[in-house]
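Why show two proteins at once? Because comparison is the fastest way to build intuition. When a single record is shown, students tend to memorize it. When two are placed side by side, the eye starts asking what differs. So, the first record is below.
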Amino acid sequence: MSTRLHVGNIPSTVLEGDLQAMFAKFGPVDTVEIARDSGTGLSRGFAIVAMARDQDAVTAIGRLNFTQYAGRTIGVSRSR
């Protein structure tokens, strides 16, 4: 079963492929879903990244939480 991570404070210019590449450095990524407004299609500023292995997700959280990405400080945590 995948471990789902919440990635917050991402800029609207970030694409799924960008996040896929960033998280793939820590292990296999199953899916990346950027939350979008249903009316406009614009990013809502967060995404859900599902990683194949729990230990890789823990490593990604430790390495990426409160780091700079595309000019913003992102937050990475387990999705609730």
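Second record. Ask yourself what differs from the first in the token line.
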Amino acid sequence: MNSLPTNDSMPVATKSRPLKVVLICHSDMLGGASIVTYRLMQALRYEGVDARMVVYTKISNDSNVDVISSRGMRGFKFLVERLRILVSNGFSRENLFKVSIANTGTAIHKHPWVAEADVINLSWINQGLLSINGIRRLGSLGKPIVWTMHDMWNLTGICHHSYDCKGYKESCGNCQFLTGLSGSDLSNKIHQRKKELYAGLNIHFVAVSNWLAGLCRQSSLLGDKPLSVIPNAFPINSFVTKPTHSITSFNIDYTRNIIVMGAARLDDPIKGLGYAIEALNYIFDNHPEIARTSTAVFFGDIRNPRKFDELRFPHIHIGRINDQKVIRMIYAASKVVLSTSLYETLPTTLIEGQASGCLAVTFGKGGQTDIVEHMKNGYIAEYRDAKSVARGILWAFEQNVDRDALHESVRRRYASSEIAMEYISLYNDLLSKQNVSAQQHSTSKKH
């Protein structure tokens, strides 16, 4: 969406030009946080904001997205950060990508789009894109900074999800993802660096779910910082509740009851694939009449395809799907959207599934509870209980769902236009406060 509408209601930084916002994210299309940030940029542009993205990895051909640094330098900085983590976790690759330390990054503060922007909106900035010092340099530009949080990294020392650890309430240390169990380990050191960063900059944080906001309020880093809750933006109107055509390439029988489950990487431990398999096997063993008329469709990468050898329930794994139209048709043909993630900030697949008329079945340890109202628009299973997940699927199969009404309820909560206007209101409020502060400072200097 390259053009900007021109009308009197356009949000403005001055009377002569539109509001300029630069969104900074690791990628535009690679990973969930990147995709929703790109969608936010599109939604903002549609509402009249001159919004652009600066990224580390560009997938789209959108002229409003620019890549920072050279490929070789990006790779070097990525390796520098990962090597430092490897040293601290005993050279184990098992937890290598569960943490980030922001010890190296690019000079984004020098990018012309950043220089021109009225507001800087940070998103997922890890793995060599921005260092803690780089964020401090952005703060020195004197522009309002909004930081949209897609996981727990902002409120912990180094981890993206803390699981059951509550170290973020104090000062981290003894990190489960490092070796040695030291109170002054790398997690504690980075926690202290973040504390100093936040104390020196006026950042307005945005949590994408009430669950994440609640954790921020418990955190020693963010407990007293400015915080709003604004969900991710979704192109709800592009989702349909009935398939407009069949996707024949995957041999999906659309006459069956379809359960759909997707993830960037299905066997990422946090996705809880084992609970989904156990739940579906329970239905296969105890309700064979249901299994005979049903199919579980899984999309996304998997490191160990043999994992599906454990699944007796009829199923299809269709791998990674980059064509959103294909995914939308599968959702529209499905009755249940399933997620057994142990923790999720705001699960995209549940919202997209509901926008297509699917009932959601999931655990409730995270942003799922923002999306699912138990036994109304989905089922909240007992945590880590596969039999409870199975009961949720069976419950969903028995419901006569008004798919269009479910779609409409999701549109009211997550439509791109609604979310864009919430951000525009926040941006304008921060700019207004900055202008008042600047005027007061100028007046005090005169006296």
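One difference worth noting in the second protein: The two ends are 49 Å apart (CA to CA).
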